[in-house]
Amino acid sequence: MPQLRQMWPDMPSLDQLPRSSIVGFLHVAEVVPIEEFPPERREPGCTGPFVWVIDRAILLEQPFHCAGALGMWAPPKDLPVPEEVMLHCQSEAVLAVAPVPRKPAAVKAQPVMSATDDDHEGGEGATRLE
Fold first, then answer.
1. Which of 16, 81, 109, 117 has a CA between 20 and 30 Å from the CA of residue 10?
2. pLDDT in tens, 37-83
3. How far apart are CA 80 and CA 18, in angstroms?
4. C-alpha distances in angstroms, 105 versus 30, 48, 94, 102, 109?
5. Contact, 9 vs 21, CB < 8 A?
6. Bridge partners, 58 (sequence order)
7. Contact yes or no for 78/64 (Cβ under 8 A)
8. Dist. CA 91–CA 113, nearest whole Å
């Protein structure tokens, strides 16, 4: 929190900020592995593994309350999208969420179980894929 206060001295107290809400849109111009991003361009809270270079932000007139989820997720279909945002989108598909790039070492391989339609997970007839 001290780093955020340093970058945003007039930040309201946390109880005054909207929770469980979408407050606007932003454009990610580039996603760069932190080791390839110049240290002199990093913000104080920039810790990696990737730097999301944001070149434009558009606030909603009012926060849009929604439950959300952990990580990245698709926005609700009834989210009010400002015309200014849609002008920069070739289609509404742009508003869908793309997978976050990951380093191969960051993903742990897990054995996967596959079962036939008649079997439950791990039951007779299940096939172990490795």
1. 81
2. 999 998 877 888 999 999 889 999 999 998 878 877 888 888 888 88
3. 17
4. 22, 15, 29, 8, 10
5. no
6. 25
7. no
8. 37
Domain residues of the chain, as ranges? 2-105
Is 18 within 8 Å of 64 (Cβ atoms)?
no
Chain position carrying tokens 């946390």: 14
> Which structure tokens are listed for 82?
């400002």
Helix boundaries (H) for the chain: 2-7, 83-86
* Whole-angstrom distance, CA of residue 74 vs CA of residue 102: 19
Q: Does residue 115 sit in helix, strand or coil?
A: coil
CA gap 84, 22 in Å, rounded: 16
- Report pTM: 0.58
